Amino acid sequence: MSIFAEDFKIQILLIPLIMKGKSPKESLTIQTQVVLPNDTNTLGNLFGGQLLQWMDIVASISAHRHCRRVVVTASVNNVSFNMPINHASLVTLEAKVSRAFSTSMEVFIDVWVEDPVSGEKIKANEAIYSFVAVDQNGSPLPVPPLIPETEEEKIRYEGALRRKQLSLILAGKMKPSEATELKALFMEA
Ligand SMILES: CC(C)(COP(=O)(O)OP(=O)(O)OC[C@H]1O[C@@H](n2cnc3c(N)ncnc32)[C@H](O)[C@@H]1OP(=O)(O)O)[C@@H](O)C(=O)NCCC(=O)NCCS
Is residue 174 a part of any domain in this protein? Predict the structure, then answer.
């Protein structure tokens, strides 16, 4: 690595420290969709891939609102489809940044399904996406830190480093022996 590349890495690590922190509510993004016939599988329920796309869009807007940069999806973690979502349901997706690192951000997406007749809202699932802020050449850029406020935001913030380390291990970008936060979790157990 050249001395310039090394300098750039140091700048990326330092800039978030001098950027003003932002609250999760500044990145809150809410979208409501209706499940149309084109969005369904052969059983007439919402197609999983369609929900993943809606989640990617709402989460990327949330990450963009946090850093005001172009963002790319780095990883999709923790998605489970807990219940079928029927045709004509109203699906509301709520996304908020749960933690910002140097150039990456973790975003939580909560998905609610509203019965079109009764109006009852049920939490259908939850997903966690990671985004990286990039310049016009696709190189990572620093992002502002996140300052959690509510109890739930603090819990999500606390767990984010563990999830990032797991995601990096699964992507082959980190050795398990370097995952200090994950190791600490197993030592506690
Ligand atoms: C995401 C991307 C910009 C990362 O680039 P990179 O060369 O790996 O850059 P770095 O190693 O410096 O990583 C940048 C940040 O991304 C994080 N990151 C990279 N891969 C990650 C993963 N799988 N999960 C979580 N975070 C990840 C790194 O930890 C780092 O975070 P930090 O700076 O906040 O500590 C690059 O891999 C990319 O452009 N991927 C394609 C993105 C895309 O096209 N998405 C659409 C899907 S089709």
Answer: no
Report which protein residue has its CA nearest ligand 1's atom 2: 74
* Residue 144 structural domain: 3-149
Say if 188 falls within a structural domain.
no
Residue 131 · residue 107 · CB < 8 Å: yes
**Residue 137 included in any domain:** yes
What CATH number did the domain enclosing 47 receive?
Answer: 3.10.129.10
Q: Which residues line ligand 1 (CB under 6 A)?
A: 72-75, 101-104, 130, 132, 134, 138, 140, 164, 167-168, 171, 173
- Report the side by side order of strands in the sheet with 70-77: 29-34, 90-100, 104-114, 121-134, 70-77
Q: Output the pTM of the full model.
A: 0.90
Domain count for the chain, please give it: 1
19: exposed, middle or buried (Cβ count in 10 Å: 0-12, 13-18, 19+): middle
Separate counts of helices (H) and strands (E) for the chain: 4, 5
Q: Give the position, in ligand 1's atom list, of the atom nearest the Cα of 134.
A: 3
Question: Does residue 165 fall inside a structural domain?
Answer: no
Q: Using CA positions, which residue lies closest to atom 10 of ligand 1?
A: 140
pLDDT in tens, 37-93: 999 999 999 999 999 999 999 999 999 999 999 999 999 988 888 899 999 999 999
